[in-house]
Amino acid sequence: MLRAGVASAGAARRLGPRRTPPEAPSGRPIEVIAREARRLGNRYRSTREGVSYAKADAFRRAYDGVLGEWCDALDVAHLLAVLPPGDELDSERTRVERTLNGWGLRLDDAA
To answer: Cys-Cys crosslink for 100: which of 17, 40, 105, 111, Cβ 3.0 to 4.6 Å?
Structure first.
């Protein structure tokens, strides 16, 4: 009995070092990010006139944040977190939306 245990230990050493299991992905699952992006995109695009600037800006920042998270999960370069509000940020948001749409990730689906 002892001999079998020694033999199996020797065989394990000959096989080489154990491989570590692959790392689990960090962050939220892509499906959750997609659902959140659709929900926040709808809120951002349907902001009514008369809504305070603070509330409208919060919707924009939340939507840009989840778009950035989606890009990070897919290794897509973006400038959403570094551009100040304005035309450049709007253009970058549109570019990111088109890029994600090109990946087959629909943003205009109902949440």
So the answer is: 105
Q: At CA 81, angle to CA 80 and CA 87, rounded to 5?
A: 45
* C-alpha span between 3 and 106 (Å, rounded): 62
Between CA 97 and CA 68 the distance in angstroms is 10
Which helix (H) or strand (E) element contains residue 74?
helix 53-74
User: Which tokens belong to 31?
Assistant: 């499906």
**Taken in order 69, 106, 97, 78, is the CA torsion positive or negative?**
positive
CB-based burial, 25-34: b 16+ in 10 Å, e otherwise: eeeeeeeebb
- Residue 56, C-beta contacts closer than 8 angstroms, at least 6 positions apart: 47
pTM for this model (two decimals): 0.73
What tokens appear for 30 in the block? 């892509």
